[in-house]
Design goal:
This protein is mainly β and 511 residues long. It has two domains: 5-172, Jelly Rolls (Sandwich); 181-507, Neuraminidase (6 Propeller), CATH 2.120.10. It is 4% helix and 48% strand. It has two helices and 42 strands. Strands 1, 5, 6, 9, 12, 15 and 16 form a seven-stranded antiparallel sheet that branches. Strands 4-7-14-10-11 form a five-stranded antiparallel sheet, with no helix packed on it. Strands 25-24-23-22-27 form a five-stranded mixed sheet, with no helix packed on it. The N and C termini lie far apart (59 Å).
Length: 511
Amino acid sequence: MEPLASYRGDAELSSRDGLVTSWGNLTRIHGAPRVWKVKTPGGVKEVVRFDGGSAVWQAVNAWGRVEGSRTIVAFARIGGEGVLCDGSTRSGADAIRLKGDGSKWEVLKFTRASGTLGGFIVGADVATKNGLKCDVAEISVFRGTLSEKEFANVESSLRQKWGEPVDLPDVEQIQPWVPFAGLTTKMLRKNGDDGVNTYRIPGLATSKKGTLLAVFDLRHESGGDLPGNIDVGLTRSTDDGETWSATQRVMDYEGSGVGDPSILVDRETGRIFVAALWSKGNRAWHGSGPGMTPEETGQFVISHSDDDGVTWSQPVSITSQIKQPEWRLCFDGPGCGMQRRDGTLVFPAQFRDPKGTPHSCFIASKDHGVTWTMSPPCEGPTSEAQIAETKDGMLISMRDESRSGQRKWQRWDGKAWSKAWLRLPDPVCQASLIRHPNGRLLFSNPADAKSRVRLTVRESRDDGETWSEGRVLDPRGSMYSCMSLMRDGRVAMVYEGVGGLWFAAFTLEER
């Protein structure tokens, strides 16, 4: 009997920096499954090492559901207690729980006479919990029940190929990543906390008093974008990220959604601004149209705080100040704004022109947020952006909607934009760009051309002309991020990671 699906460590295993990125059609990665090298009769081969908090999986549409009898055969070394594999849908869950001491490799057979296997996940259960510490060289799924002879043939083939695998020494293993000095991470908001389905779109700033202020979407009913039931939430930390306040709602339009926040601190006055997109009805990315009123088009709204983020003003729309009536939409680029050396306040922004093409841009205020003006557009199609001051102007880093797999960049000299260029891998995602007091630029994004994984921080010493290879902050699935500088000199970040929003802090090394 031929297997319906077979995953072998010696074939179809893709990795980067020693971390699994896909295994055949098991392309969804949870946690940080690692490639582990072993010596076999056929030479050095790779197996997949699960640490109890990682898994690889695929949706049911990869090879359909398995109804009725089925057999799963694995060649593995079990070093803990948990779930080796499961269906990846709740309706087709079939968890196989094991316990072992990690002392030997075994050919394991599991037969089910009935029920359904929907999708497939290896390393944990369908909820990506109850993970198992184990090494897996091969795992195969068969429709039906293997006869004793068929299983004997499979077992003989596995033993002949793999023998008794011997681990290569640690020095010969691929070291997956080297974190920043003093890196600490903690869950800031877990999806489901306080009845909120999903926390997304982080922004981060440090107040004049040194308070960390994190803003984010409160996506109450699902993980979907506007025009869903979304409010803008905020939490504060007065002890450099050790503890955080309960969530407060900075913006809440009853019966409407508001989200995609960006935060900015005026260091001269101490006032803190939060900008966001208000969608009255279906007036978000796809439903917004020409016009200026909330009934016609999404609104660029701003709220402010004069007491270090404890209380907030009612949001007001600045749409009439910055939007052209023929544009379909105009709102902020989520993350954070910045203040130039001359005191000018700057929020990254974006708009959709009459044809629907998106363009990155920025809005600026020279009177501490009383009035705002709009910059000329950047080269489209670009959308979510972040911006930093340079010696001779400003540098903008943009999400390239042409799907190039790279970031798009332009420079602003005070009057016009430079020609755009592409640099650094990017999976069409928001990113973060800030300037450190030592003069370096810091940039963070999922450093992959296709997948939102491997959150990486890079630095530039020449105003963005060249960038370092960077340090991986989180090798797992990761999306939006926003950095700020803490009063003790460390770099702080809030980012979208596995299960919700995470807070990270690290020291920028002097080199």
